[in-house]
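## Example pair
The file below holds two records. Each record gives the amino-acid sequence first, followed by its structure token line.
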Amino acid sequence: MTKQKQKRNRGIILTPEGLEKLETARAELEYMVNFGERFTYEKISELTNLDLNTIKKILAGKEGVDKRSLEKYFLAFKLNLTEAYYTKPNPHQRQDLNEAVSVDHFFGRISQLNILKDWLLKDRCRLVTIVGMGGMGKTTLSIKCAEQIGEKFDCVVWKSLRDAPPVEEILANLIEFVSEGRETKANLPERVGERITRLIDYFRSLRCLVLLDNAESLMDSGSRVGKYRHGSEGYGELFRRVGETNHLSCLMLTTREKPKEVAILEGEKLTVRSLQLEGLSQEEGQEIFKIRGLAGSELELKALSDRYTGNPLALKVVATTIQDLFDGNITQFLDQENAVFGDIRDILDQQFERLSDLEKEIMYWLAIAREPISIAQLQEDLVLQVSPIKLLEALESLSRRSLIEKNASRFTQQPVVMEYLISRLIEEVCEEIVRQKLRLIRDHALIKATAKDYLRENQIRFILQPIIKGLLAVLRNKKALEERLTTILAMLRGTSPLEQGYTAGNIINLLCQLKTDLTDYDFSSLCVWQADLRQARLHQVNFQNADLAKSVFAENFGGIWSVAFSPDGQYLAAGDTKGDILLRRVEDGQPIRSFKGHHGWIVSLAFSPDGNLLASGSCDCTAKLWEVSTGECLHSLEEHEQEVWSVAFSPDGKTLASGCDDRKARLWSVSTGKCLKVFQGHLSEVLSVVFSLDGQKLISGSQDNTIRFWDIETEKCKKILQAHDDGVRSISISPDGQMLASSSNDRTVKLWNLKTDECLNVFQGHSNVVLSVTFCPQGNLLASTGIDQTVRLWSVETAECLKVFPGHSNMINSVAFSPQGNILASGSYDQTVKLWDINTYQCFKTLQGYSNQALSVTFSPNGQILVSGGHDQRIRLWNLNTGKVVKTLHDHTNWIFSVAFNPNNNLLASGSADKTVKLWDVNTGKAIKTFWGHQAVVRSIIFSSDGQILASGSEDGTIRLWDINTGKTLKTLRGHQAEIWSIALSFNGQTLASASFDKTVKLWDVYTGECLQTLHGHDSWVWSIAFSPDNQTLVSTSIDQTIRFWQVNSGECKRIWKDDIGNSQLVAFSNDGQILASCNQDHNIRLWQLSTEKCFKALHGHTALVNSISFSPDGYTLVSGSEDETIKLWDLKSGKCVKTLIVEKPYESMNITGVKGLTQAKINNLKALGAINSYFQ
């Protein structure tokens, strides 16, 4: 890769911490010797013996100065310059105005523009607000200002608040931008105040101009001025602190309502100011009339401008109205009394009432869409069929009235018009539901289940939720609202069965938003369009003879380990934890077919160059070749000894390469399925393989930290790159074959020159293992992803992180670009595949799976109750005699990884992927406390022997000890360098053990929090640990395929069991300490007699990995929870499974007999998730 020459960076600048230190010291000295007045530059020059130019450079923080100058500055204020206080300067001025609207016509506003320039450049204002009613041109003015003076700032960024994004999200985006991707949502503090502090730190070291548009969206409509809507209160703190705190930057707001913080802080001589934007002058307004083709006398035009106070939007609408309705006669228009309006709503009301029914319907649909849509989409949305000609005529009419805008071949509305329509829609729908007179709710979808993800989320926030709020205000309570909605459903079934429309779909979406229990609801013979049912539990719901067109359901797939696009970009394949491969059409996400045959996770996928074949690698120790058109398995490649982590086709498509846990890479004949060559030399698992573009070399990345280059003809290793510090997880070759990218457990991505072996760049930013990396087809971008739940997009040339895509709720195992490079697919263990638009950085499609693995199982101390936790965020208490659920506890918002009883049987604790620990009353099933503090998934929890302390281990690398009475953290135990996967308490209650991905086990004193010992010996991640009942021995399992027995007192490893079958993942001691139970990747449970070290029973029955095991208190029974979604009870004497417990699926007994609007594939999917179809039962 040819690198561009850059001007050499010289000198250093202050870090935010350094500037804060200096400013604090200076303020203290000013208080002592200068009566609190700020020192002038001349005075600082006198104190520091530095010239004025150097002082300004230091304080501006843009140009570098020599280290001696900084030292002199610090010494003048009795400070020492440490490395934390300085860094090298970044010479690149950066702007992000991508979201800003284009300013094609700028009418007047010259004086206001000059005022803003003076405030920002001369007076160095910190907080500036442009205030005015809708349509006044606030946005246009702010963007024009940024365009003209942006070069004076280090960073310029524009963000819209129209959809009231959470303040945490805006802060994360701003910090990511100003920090050049060094800080992202994944590694920022959770608290809003701490994020604001971090942003202001950058505001002190950089001169930033941040423009936030439509700040009125943060305010609660219908409330007193300045009151924030629920969830937006944090913006008030942001505005206050930016205005109060000394820094170099400026935050500019545009808003219809002045925030109360601005009103308190502003002043003519202060650094917080407001510009009230009034209407255009007569001369400026005439420019609008000329463009609209409206002519008149000077008096007429003045009267017209005065009547509408120069509001630019109102003038545009009025000019069109005069042309269309009054034949261009301004006087006749002015004579109309009803033409007078007090605000923009009045004129929009007047315009709206003049529209035809079709035009009104179009206006509502455009507002609901929230982005430009095509005529074809409008036609599809309309309930009544309308000819394309009539639709086009209506759109042209609306365009002439200035009510809609055309963008290429798509149509949309100005924000103020869209807001008006949404407000009107909410009011009328509320009235329709209350009066049970249905029109708008029948003809319009309040949310579109098939819309792009980010649009649907905004439809929920700005349409569905406000409607619920309005209805609750009238009907008083949730129960009354549910009854009203149910009454409407019954009325529909009685009077309008299968009438086309959106009423039933809207009602079910409202009920889902209310979190109503839909069990036994009746939607039979109804048109249920655009219902989003992916997260709904629809037990015994009746959809018999219903029309379910355009409704969306969860799909029957598990966590996603691999994704791949077909060479033509039309299809996406995804491999899951159930051993299935899903083929989806990219355009609409529709299922094409499934490939079934594997018995373990599908961890790698690759299409052949011609797209006819699909290769898969699996944890079942096989690779397979499939025919894409039929789903037939052509060859099963079974010479692997362990998990197959990577597959890749040669450029000519005749050969397949595979990389395996057995430390070998293999080449296979695609036509015969025969193994052609075996490449040996790696010292650990081969996790990734790729071919060189000429097909002469095979490149492999391994857990042994190296990348090897093999000559395919000779099978010789030609060179070895010592690539990373902790394993190579993924490699990808650039489209031109000149570069190689690698990702690692060491949290980095590296870029290599294949000719010179030089490391060209190190991409840093991930906070955990980077599992996947890939080049885009154009070669200028890299995408990476991993355990930190983020997808990152990088510039290949600069190594800059261009964007961080949040949204997944668990580790992301695979990422792939479409062949065109415009779409990025990510597959996650959270059971979703997400498709991202590379141009907008938005997620436009999520494929939602469903798999309810049993992640944790345990007995109550008295042995009477079994408790389980899993994927569906619910804890279940089971009656062991009947095998039925007696109580379901639901308060977590993510998977439940660990459950534990206290010694008295009356309390239950749970640890979750939502980063919380919860304490439950077993008798009532209520959550009585939530423990906050962990910054990542809580993997393991355990009570102390007296039940007063609860310990939790987390992927954030810490253990927390909680007082169960107060909910406070007693101690936080730190020391591990990676995720903690398991914790265990000795039976005497004195010692706590923790197992970590840093390859160690640690022993802790429960009472002091002291780390007593660190046990080294495992070569890879440590999964599970267990104390023997006599407290003398600790057992640990690891991905290195060993079980180790440690002497607790000495920390000595007494013996090692090598597991040849696979990675041992779980261990548990029987209560008498005589038996050890273990599980590995063959899905079986083994019982070992410790006195003989012999396996005396293997418990067969699970069809997927076992996640959790536990012995009953009486020692006669073992319980196991598995990825196969079952819980099994085993009789230890006979080794037989005596009971299998299965949790109800989301659509259990949902009646879909005679449904319309679903393909057979979708019907089969619903049946797999519990639905019944009496025609085939």
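Second record, same layout:
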Amino acid sequence: MKPIWLKIAGLHSYRELQEIDFAKLSEAGLFGIFGPTGSGKSTILDAITLALYGQVVRLGGGTHPKEVLNQLEQRVFVSFTFEIGAGDRRKRYTIEREFGLDKKGNRRQPEVRLIERGTDGVTPDKVLESKATAATQAIESLIGLTLQDFTRAVVLPQGQFSRFLTLKGSERNEMLQRMFQLHEYGEKLNERIRTRYEQNKTELHRLQLELAAIGDVGPEALEHARQTLELAEQQSKAYAAQREELSAKKREMEQVYQWQVERAAIEQQAAALQSRQAEIEQIGQKVKEIEASLQIWPLWQKYRKLSKEWDELGLALAQLRQQQQSAASEWEQADQEYQSAAATLRQQEPLLAEQKGKLLQAVEWEKELAALARDLQEAEREQAGLTGQLHLLHSQIDQLEQALVDLDKQWAELEQQVQQVVVTPEERQHLVALREVKEGWSREQQKLQELVAQKAELQKERQALTADLQQLADEVRQQATLRERTQNELAACQEKPLLSETELERLREQLMQAKQLGKEWREQVNLLNAWSKKWAELEQRWGQQERDILQLEEQQRKLTEVHQRARDAYEQVSSEWQSWQRENLARMLRKELSDGEACPVCGSTHHPLRHTELTEEAQTAERQRWEQKLAQMEEEVAQAERQLREATDSLQAAKINGAALAEQRRSQQEEKASIDERVAQIKAECAALGADWQTEDFEALLMRYKQNETAFRVKTEERARQKDMLEQLQQRLAQVREQELLRRSSQESKQALLNRLQDQLAVVDLRLAEATEQLRQAESKFTQLRGELLPEEIESRYRQLEERDRLLIQLAQQRTELEKRRKDLAQQSETEKERRTQLTIRATALQERRHERAQLQTERQRQLFAVTQGEAAASLLTQIESKLAQLQKSVQTAEQRRTQAMERRQQVHERLLKAEEACSLLNRQRMEAELVWQTGMQQAGLADDVSRLEALYQESERLEAYREQVDSYNRQQTQLQYERDRLGQLLAGRSVTEEEWQSMLLAWEQLERTYEAFKDEVAVARQTLQQISANHDKWVGLQAKIFERVDEQSRLEELKKLFEGKAFVQFIAEEKLAAIAADASYHLKRMTKNRYALEIGDEGEFVLRDEGAGGMRRPVNTLSGGETFLTSLALALALSVEIQMRGGKLEFFFLDEGFGTLDPELLETVMDALERLRMDRFTIGLISHVPEMRLRMPRRLVITPAEPLGAGSQIRLEMD
């Protein structure tokens, strides 16, 4: 840390802002601060500590403005700039603090700023802290020293120089611990060991509880779980094979059943579609008509629109022709009006313009005359005001001169009062020192009382902890007794014989197999009963089906003969009908001919035989007779065909049903064989279970199953009760163990707390003895310093001193006010005299200006009368301008009307031409549209029926719906036919009845339930095995971890014993202190010519070895003042050089006392040693009033004392 700049204002004897450039002052490595006693030398050190830590050490750490504030000031300001660090990490900081009083004399909130300075010219300054407490903490963090450490090793103010030399061992160790960061090896390392010890202990306890909680998970339990899982998996695989076989049959039957359902649904849909055929044909016809109307409708709309537009355009054309005639007449009238107005303007405009120019000049003269009249009136008023002011100023100047004489008399009287109340510096210093000593004595008394109270509180806590430990010991013994009793009960329960899990599982498996076999046997019995019923029904249906087929074959034969006869009769009638048509073909051709039309056979246009044929009525009657006969024969043939087709379909269906029945009979026979085979297998499997299960009757098997199940349930319940008892005892034992461990852990924590409390009591006893000794010393010093003065009179004397100070401040304030008043009166008198002179000059100038304005007013009045003859010029000008504007406006209005009339005539003409052309074009388009529309109507077969067209067009919105209905109908027909053919191919004659399908579903459901039950058993067995395996691995891991924790706990206990108290820190501090003592001894030998050396005593205290007395060792409290100064100086130099700070070593050292106790020869030796101590990046500053030292310093700060009630102390830099 290196000081750069210091600013002081308002602190102690300093009033105005004083600045110290430490960078220049420290260039030589050694400088001094000199001045008379009380001039403010030590205040410079106070300013540094006040800036850094917000306290002044010489005042016992005071920060109240009244304690540090100059009596004539209202604020204290200090600013200290310093650098810290090395190389690239070196930074510059500024700490600023301001204290003060408010208007009522109370303490004002201090203002603080800690700033990091930018040193490269680019980086801006940055405010780090702006609160007092935070700024102080930041400074301690940056420097690494507290205020006490700083004043013991860096800045040594008066009364603090030998503190480190005479510190007690505990206080010196604490100081060294902070200075050299020994807390890393002391408190922090000890805390880490204690924390690790408690964590390891807690973890060991947790592992023991976890081991007790997992229960029995040994190798036997693991092997039993594996066997259980293997048995369950074998049974599950057997049922899985059965399930797969039945599943294949179920899928095939389900597929056939589903195809049958789909085919029935398709037949229903086809019948529904057939019923809508006529409706769909009508909708198709309407679609064609609507499509034709959509093509014609735009043509019709276009024709209607063009006709309407043509009619409207004809009416508009007639209106435009009338508008054209009206516009021509309007333009002729407007042109005549314009010519008349223009002629009038040309005649009168020159004369009116000349009159207007003269009247404009006259208006300006009128304005000028009005302004002159106002100026004259204002000048008269101002003249009168100036005269009054001059008389008043003469009177005021006389009064001010008399007031200055009176103030001079008051000033002389005030100076006499100031001299009477001034306090001498010696008297003030004695009272302040006496009051400080008294306050120190009071603080020592208070400190002693606090230590006594602290000791009583610690004793009370020790008594309470002892009682708690006794209670915990009783609880631990109770828990141990309960644990032993629970362990005995658990051992007794475990000795009872328990049915093995293997035997129990074998019986359970035997019962399950017997139960499953019984279910299957019952199912087979049910299936056999159902088969008997279905077989009887099937035989009955088979006989009936054979009889139906014989009847249908006979019916088909008869209908075939009937159909053949009807077909022969139809062919005969048809042949006769064709013969009749050939015979009447020529007659029908002549009937179609017309007169003058060419014959398609011979080409002749003359037809003589056309009117010789039979009459039309006879021919029509003959034709109708043949057509009726032919239709009747066609109906007979169609009816015969329908009957034959129905008979054929019925026969084919009967044959298909017969084939299906035959297939069902074969399937039933296979099913019967399968049932018999499965029953035989079940009997064999029952016999394989044991002799108890061998039987030929299902009811006997059921009876034996109930007996064995009851016996198994009794054994299972008995084993479960015994197992529950074991689990409850194990849980109770785990809980008891946990409670016992908790009690023991609490007991150990309480014991550790009691041990720490004993250590604290020992420390308090030591501090109590030290406080008693310090109180005795403070009381002795206080008694010696006060002399005959009583303690209660000290405050009275100090209050009298403060009263005289307050009176002096009041007198100073009165003198300042008198001085300010005299200065204000003198300045006011000069101001008034100068104002009187200015007013006199203004009055003279004003008189001259009035005369000039009067002459100008007369001349302007004469000129104005020559133009206006006494009338108002503005009125005459308004009349001329109004007349001229009226003439111009008439011409403009007439011209605008003429232009508008011409434009309107042109616009109407253009619109007429465009309308005539549009009318011709629109008529041609209308005729073309009419021709196209009529052609479309004829092609659509609508002739001129517009209403029919509109009706069809209105239905166009439903066109898409009509189309969709037709398309959907066709798609459905196609799809249904496709599905009917596809399903017929898939079924290939196969069929499944509802009873067969339901029977299959029932069998599948029963097998599925059995299979799922065995799957659940496998899952439960696997989960049990996984849980036991996981717990077994955890058990092995916990055993290993507990062994590791126990081993580590023993090592931590050894470390804990080694680091109890501060033995390790004491060892490191003693080593560091020995190095510092050796360095200080080197400096001391140089300053005393090897007479004195500094050593460390047996109890860690400093001892001075006097070589001049034969190497005799002397305690430091036996040294004289000069010896104490030299020893403390050497120790301070060694300590300051050795202190490690954040960012680099300490770079300066201040000393503020001691040189007055040295004789001239020893002073010369000390100065030589200090000059030789100068080194790079290290500066030593000395504060003294000894003249010889001032001559030896290369850099000097000279302090000029403050003047009573005047300027404060001044600082001046001197350089050789």
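Notes on the second record: DSSP finds 24 helices and 17 strands in the chain. The domain at 1-154+1144-1216 is CATH 3.40.50.300 (Rossmann fold).
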